[in-house]
């Protein structure tokens, strides 16, 4: 039952995040907020409960959360008394989040990674607004262009394919040529966004984005939206009404609409069961 609830909520959030029925707008606003879940992953090795590693991991996560009140990126290495107890970690907020939103997001991601990867020596969680990763093997500063997550929307209507694909490619080359770790652009109905992790250099960022954008184009075809997350960067695009619009308005509305989400997931479970 617990698993079904999670699945229902996940598929609900995945499907409504990118669709803009007026009916679903309130739900979309909440589920596509900076704190909503995109993906997570855990390493196989496990640490022992109440070990020195666990206590170092807790210090690490606390440091990440505290740092997110004043910086959109940071990394830490917590040394142990033995080499087996060392833990490395970082977070990266999407470049246009305010500091309070970044701090809230990293706090949620740090909690989430703990429940998503209980007793794993390494774990990572990406929320819409921020990413948190820790591991007992060092990964800080290393380029990582492995694909971690990809999602493509359904194709745009045939008559609009050429226009949308043309605009998307223009937006993507704008992002490629932009500077900095966070880049946004738009053309007509198409919006794009790219973010590198703060631990890699400018040239590595460009190289990583080139890979992500190449995959978006080749793997998502004429989709209405696409997201490609690699180890150290991500690139996304969408046509109007998809992920672009909701993030700004999250906090004041979240509490107001929680009962609506509860009701909807209840209804979905009724339908499913
Ligand atoms: C991480 O922890 C696992 C399990 O204790 C261990 O097998 C592995 O060698 C560790 N990796 C590093 C880099 O210390
Ligand atoms: C950040 O930029 C994206 C892309 O333009 C936009 O959709 C989002 O609303 C922005 N977030 C904030 C908090 O301004």
TrEMBL record:
UniProt keyword Signal present: yes
This protein's UniProt keywords: Cell junction, Disulfide bond, Host-virus interaction, Repeat, Signal
Name under which the protein is recorded: Gnk2-homologous domain-containing protein
Signal peptide range: 1-32
Membrane topology: Single-pass type I membrane protein
Family of this protein: Belongs to the cysteine-rich repeat secretory protein family. Plasmodesmata-located proteins (PDLD) subfamily.
PROSITE patterns with a match to the protein in the record: GNK2
Record carries keyword Signal: yes
Superkingdom, taxonomy of origin: Eukaryota
Compartments it resides in: Cell junction, Plasmodesma; Cell membrane
InterPro entries xref list: Cell2Cell_Antifungal, GNK2, GNK2_sf
Domain Gnk2-homologous: 35-139, 142-242
Organism annotation: Hibiscus sabdariffa
């Amino acid at each position: 039952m617990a698993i079904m609830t999670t699945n229902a909520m996940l598929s609900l959030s995945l499907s409504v995040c990118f669709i803009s029925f007026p009916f679903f707008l309130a739900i979309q606003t909440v589920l596509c907020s900076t704190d909503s879940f995109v993906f997570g992953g855990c390493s196989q090795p496990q640490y022992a409960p109440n070990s020195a590693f666990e206590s170092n991991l807790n210090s690490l996560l606390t440091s990440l959360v505290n740092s997110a009140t004043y910086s959109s990126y940071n990394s830490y290495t917590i040394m142990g008394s033995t080499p087996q107890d060392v833990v490395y970690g970082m977070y990266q907020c999407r470049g246009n989040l305010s500091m309070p939103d970044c701090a809230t997001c990293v706090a949620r991601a740090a909690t989430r990674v703990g429940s998503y990867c209980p007793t794993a020596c390494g774990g990572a969680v990406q929320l819409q607004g921020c990413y948190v990763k820790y591991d007992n093997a060092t990964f800080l500063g290393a380029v990582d262009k492995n694909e971690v997550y990809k999602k493509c929307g359904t194709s745009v209507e045939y008559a609009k394919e050429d226009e949308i694909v043309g605009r998307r490619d223009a937006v993507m080359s704008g992002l490629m040529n932009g500077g900095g770790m966070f880049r946004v652009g738009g053309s007509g109905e198409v919006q794009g966004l790219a973010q590198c992790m703060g631990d890699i250099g400018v040239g590595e960022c460009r190289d990583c984005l080139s890979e992500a954008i190449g995959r978006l184009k080749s793997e998502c075809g004429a989709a209405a939206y696409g997201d490609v997350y690699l180890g150290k960067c991500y690139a996304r695009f969408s046509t109007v009404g998809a992920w672009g619009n909701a993030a700004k308005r999250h906090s004041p509305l979240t509490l107001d609409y929680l009962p609506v989400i509860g009701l909807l997931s209840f209804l979905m479970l009724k339908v499913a069961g």
